[in-house]
Amino acid sequence: MSTERKPLFPDVFVNGQEISAADIAAEAQNHNAPKDKPGWAWRDGARALVIRELLLQEARKRDLQPQPNELEPGMFETEDESLIRELLDLAVTPKVPNVDDTRKVYDAQPDMFRAPTLYEPSHILFAADPTDAEAWAEALQKAQAALATLRSNPKDFASLAKELSDCPSRDAGGQLGQIVTGDTVPEFEAAMDAMEPGVINPEPVKSRYGIHILRLDAKAEGDVLPYDQVKQQIGEMLEKAAWASAANGFVQELVAKAEIIGVDMAA
Q1: What are the pLDDT digits (tens) for 163-193?
Q2: Cα–Cα distance between 187 and 206 in angstroms, integer?
Q3: DSSP per-residue string spanning 192-222
């Protein structure tokens, strides 16, 4: 009976061309995965490199020659990046959206196309790194204690902000002034969107900066923008989606025709 162990991750080949374990390990750093599932990042990295190799093989099959574009002053594409771009320019022909397409998107979800919402929030920040479990737990405990005080005495918000907050806004009693959609991090904005003006959020709000006690002093939701004002934006959105769909279809055709060993390419 053989005691030889199988390698943790198998070798990967694309039409006979090997993709090294070192290259896959480097690429895996660009892919998120749960800490207890390191194989997920490896799998996604391997898939990405398989697709890259298939595109380069197809570009060479078509005898394309690299012509690197200048991305910014003094910085150019690599030859491989140039080949892949040239190939996709030739092979991918997305459907061009028309007026009916853009109008359908607008009519189906007009709320997607609003002017920015105006907010006037105040907060008390207990700063903590979300990756530091001890600091996070301590910040949460402090926030919950302060929130309990505010449930009994909401008028103490400004004084508690001056005493406890880790944000410079403490000098203004926690007031952040007027901000609009996109000015703050998504998790903070989502909490404001869910609140009615004039109240303190009943639960601490968690963000990448720490734990917040959030009070929304005022909110003015932006009006739905007229179709003529957003039709170009919708058209560009549909063009990007159509290109992504067509490019994915082209890649899947290459995958279907290829001999790929060592990784399952099923999404």
Answers
A1: 999 999 999 999 999 999 999 999 999 999 9
A2: 7
A3: HHTSPTTEE-SSPEEETTEEEEEEEEEEEPP
